[in-house]
Amino acid sequence: MTAAGGLFLIVFGFDRAAADGWGAAVTIGSLVGGVALLGIFVLIEHRTARPLLPLRLLENRTRSGSYLAVLFAGIGGRQLWSSAALLTERPGPSLLSAFIFWAGLIVLAATALLAAWLWRRAATRDGSVELLE
Cβ contacts of residue 63 below 8 Å, gap of 6+? Predict the structure, then answer.
């Protein structure tokens, strides 16, 4: 419940930031509450005999780097679909369409480069990446 609640509050905080602004009390409260709940989740998982997410999985630098690379690759893919959806809503050439296209392309390229950099840092000397021990 703490992980789900924390993630919900963080997403809710970002949503409220778009509507109410970053300085709004509901935005700040949601983001702080979400981070606090995720911190409580980590404490609970650390003290539990059979945790849902064994924290030892994140101690391995190779595995953590691989997880981050996959996360950023997913973020880049999400940006691609968001840009494509916005472009299909505006038929015909316009300045806004060009901006959406180039912004999506830049974010996709940046996340791909970041994911590749993280993957390379996580790789072992023979080039393989250890996902499981």
Answer: 57, 122, 130, 131
